[in-house]
Amino acid sequence: MTAGGCGTILLTGASGFVGRHVAAALREAGYAVRAAVRDAGRAPPGTEPFLIGDLAAPVDWGPALEGVDAVVHGAGIAHVGPDVPEARYQAVNTDATLALADAAAGRVRRFVFLSSVRAQCGASSPVTVRDDDAPAPGDAYGRSKLAAERGLAERGIDHVSLRPALVYGKGVAGNMGALVRLARLPLPLPFGGLGARRSLLAVENLADAIVHVLAAPAPLSGPMLVADAEPVSLPEIVAALRAGMGRRPGLVGVDERWIAGLLRLAGRQDMLERLAGALVVEPGRLTRLGWRPALPTVEGLRRLGAAGG
Q: Whole-angstrom Cα distance, residue 115 to residue 295?
């Protein structure tokens, strides 16, 4: 145990967007953090680097797990599209997760796996998504995450599979990062007529949820959805981002078919469904465990806008 009494956490994916925020939250909570990274120079400040290679290849996790109290496994392939073979998702998101879990079994008290809401549903849903809904992932990424979750459940270890909604915060990439760049343009944006609501998740709230489940009484098992308290529409997202930039919303209403065509020309045809499609998430199990998201969505988006992405 550390001087703070919290113990040491092995954190994989520590050098990424989410991992750096999680490392900071763990350290603030009193944990020592052993950061599994490919490059020691990219380990978050104040962490102990542990070098690993490609997760698709065998990794000797024994030395990394020495003296470790719990594992937070965030490394993996993000949802990057159809150009990634399903076998690659399987090797990195499923097989590597279960190999680490096997190495950690009997050595750590809890295994926290960063899965995704996409293990439970597609990019949008006409109904509210809840923990107990039958999972129906819509792509190879979601299937690989669900397979890892089920493998963890079969092993009978104390674990939590967190299923975050779309995560945003300083340093975000992907569709949310592209939206921040659009919001920065000194032009009206054609999203004013899009009213579908979507749950988002501030990276600070995700990090807090991880700290919360690490401290929860044992045993734990199974998936838990994670999201901010209030879903928002795409116009509300843009308005909040631009408020953080000190600007007015600058939104106009345009037929959704025209928007889809423009995004298709820009090579971002996936953005409309993933940012404007309805996907409301209800994190019931995590809420019953006592977790509440501290940062409101609009405030988190304003901070992201003020930070410039």
A: 21
Amino acid occupying residue 21: H
State the Cα–Cα distance between residues 74 and 154, nearest whole angstrom. Answer: 20
**Strand, helix or coil for residue 132:** coil
pLDDT, averaged across the chain: 92
Distance of CA 253 to the CA centre of its chain: 31
Model confidence, pTM: 0.94
In a domain, 302, yes or no: no
Q: Which ranges of the chain does DSSP label H, i.e. alpha helix?
A: 17-28, 62-65, 86-89, 96-104, 140-155, 174-184, 203-215, 234-244, 256-265, 271, 284-288, 297-307
Q: Are strands 232-233 and 197-198 parallel, antiparallel or unpaired?
A: antiparallel
pLDDT tens profile 226-283:
999 999 999 999 999 999 999 999 999 988 788 877 777 766 667 777 777 899 999 9
H or E segment and range at residue 202: strand 200-202
**How many domains does the chain contain in total?**
1
Please check whether residue 60 lies inside any domain of the structure: yes
Dihedral angle over CA of 145, 117, 84, 12, nearest 10: -60
72 closest CA partner among 104, 44, 120: 104
Taking residues 142-163, what's their average pLDDT? 97
Longest dimension (CA), the chain: 59
What's the pLDDT tens digit per position in 54-71? Answer: 898 999 999 999 999 999
Which string of b and e fits 179-203 if b means at least 16 CB within 10 Å? bbebbeeeeebbbbebebebbbbbb
Domain of 29, CATH number, reads 3.40.50.720
